């Protein structure tokens, strides 16, 4: 079968479309024929060596939709979460590293990770959901407990996870303020339901603009940018607010402890989600909700797809079409 493989570190240019053996399923596993897959920033980080436990060569890819025993299925990329819904078992792994992932014609996964695909979604839309949807759902619903009437800040709305967080926060009835490096992305976010937006690239004091848009009262912030963005988010929260952190794209943050203790903030970390989160997240798509698909590439054009994410050109999810 054909597989998009990473043989060496050094960025997306190191990816190759290889001919490899079909995967073999262990006793509790199945082999899914992949129709479409989606990229996550994790995949880009792995090509650059910015991820723990990298083993090469490896087929990347955490998101996939495909066929199994006559059903159209979507794959939960969180393998071995464990029994406690509050946090994962530290031996759990994510599909696509260390085990081979979905950027291939076939992928072996535990049977427990295979779910029926919401019927109204196209293959490309369904592929957009798993990892980003799971992360966003847990951030907004399970950890963030976002409620109707609350004001929520989503930093960097172009991100795959954040576009889904916007959908879930609007479903919850929140007022949502977003930031982005691009006016065009802010416009697209407004079309999806965002109530206000600020360009963090052209507005050096974006956090002051957010504060005034929020009327000085931000209940929740959801961030994966880290760095100064996270520090500002902590400063912006109301007393008793919640800050949900699921990534650190910019790296380390220099935070002011005063903002946390004086305002009694809840700073909540989250990663991926439990099988229960995944099932509940999929249900959100049963009533006509659709994820945002940015662009669809053929598997053979995988390098261009990775570069689009690396350059932050996307709004929503970048898809790899694997088979018809
Ligand atoms: N813990 C987990 O389980 C988990 C799961 C998924 C993702 N993540 C992490 O979360 C991050 C995002 O992942 P993704 O797949 O959604 O990435 P992505 O689709 O590549 O999106 C990244 C976005 O981050 C935004 N960004 C970059 N620099 C920023 C800054 N200085 N301030 C505000 N926003 C900034 C940009 O938004 P604009 O384009 O709008 O400027 C960019 O589009 C990554 O670090 C990833 O590793 C963690």
Low-confidence region ranges: none
Query: Which cofactors or ions or other ligands sit in this model?
Result: NADP nicotinamide-adenine-dinucleotide phosphate
Determine the N-to-C terminus distance.
Answer: 15 Å
Tell me the overall shape.
globular
The residue fraction in helices comes out at 25-40%
Strand content: 25-35%
CATH class of the largest domain: Alpha Beta
Overall pLDDT score:
97
CATH topology of the largest domain: Quinone Oxidoreductase, Chain A, domain 1
Supply the CATH architecture of the largest domain.
Alpha-Beta Complex
Q: Biggest β-sheet, characterized?
A: 7 strands, mixed
CATH superfamily of the largest domain: Medium-chain alcohol dehydrogenases, catalytic domain
Helix and strand run:
EEEHEEEEEEEHHEHEHEHEHEHEHEHE
Tell me the total number of β-strands.
Answer: 18
Query: How many domains make up the 3D coordinates?
Result: 2
Features:
324 residues; alpha/beta; Quinone Oxidoreductase, Chain A, domain 1; 2 domains; 7-stranded mixed beta sheet; 6-stranded parallel beta sheet; 10 helices; 18 strands; globular; binds NADP nicotinamide-adenine-dinucleotide phosphate
Short précis:
The protein is of the alpha/beta class and 324 residues long. It has helices at residues 41-47, 123-127, 130-143, 160-171, 183-191, 206-213, 227-236, 257-261, 275-283, 302-310, and strands at 2-6, 15-19, 29-38, 58-59, 63-68, 71-75, 78-79, 93-94, 106-110, 114-116, 151-154, 175-180, 196-199, 218-223, 237-245, 266-269, 293-298, 317-321.
């Amino acid at each position: 079968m054909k597989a998009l493989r990473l043989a060496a570190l050094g960025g997306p240019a190191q990816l190759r479309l290889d001919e490899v053996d079909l995967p073999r399923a262990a006793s509790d596993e199945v082999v899914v024929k992949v129709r479409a897959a989606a990229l996550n920033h994790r995949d880009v980080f792995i090509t650059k060596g910015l991820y723990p436990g990298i083993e090469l060569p490896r087929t990347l890819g955490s998101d996939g939709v495909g066929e199994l025993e006559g059903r159209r299925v979507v794959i939960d990329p969180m393998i071995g979460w464990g029994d406690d819904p509050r946090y994962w078992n530290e031996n759990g792994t994510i599909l696509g590293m260390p085990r081979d992932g979905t950027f291939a014609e076939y992928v072996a996964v535990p049977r427990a990770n295979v779910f029926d695909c919401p019927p109204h979604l196209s293959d490309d839309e369904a592929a957009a959901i798993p990892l980003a949807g799971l992360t966003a759902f847990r951030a907004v619903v399970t950890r963030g407990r976002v409620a109707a009437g609350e004001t929520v800040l989503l930093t960097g709305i172009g991100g795959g996870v954040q576009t889904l967080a916007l959908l879930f926060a609007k479903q919850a009835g929140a007022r949502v303020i977003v930031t982005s490096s691009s006016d065009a992305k802010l416009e697209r976010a407004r079309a999806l339901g965002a109530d206000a937006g600020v360009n963090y690239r052209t507005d050096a004091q974006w956090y002051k603009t957010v504060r005034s848009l929020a009327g000085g009262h931000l209940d929740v912030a959801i961030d994966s940018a880290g760095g100064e963005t996270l520090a500002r988010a902590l400063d912006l929260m109301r007393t008793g607010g919640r800050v949900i952190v699921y990534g650190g794209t910019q790296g380390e943050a220099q935070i002011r402890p005063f903002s946390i203790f004086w305002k009694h903030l809840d700073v909540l970390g989250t990663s991926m989600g439990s099988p229960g989160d995944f099932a509940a997240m999929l249900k959100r798509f049963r009533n006509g909700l659709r994820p945002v698909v940015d662009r669809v590439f053929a598997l053979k054009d995988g390098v261009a797809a990775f570069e689009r994410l690396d350059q932050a050109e996307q709004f929503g999810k970048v898809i790899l079409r694997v088979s018809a």
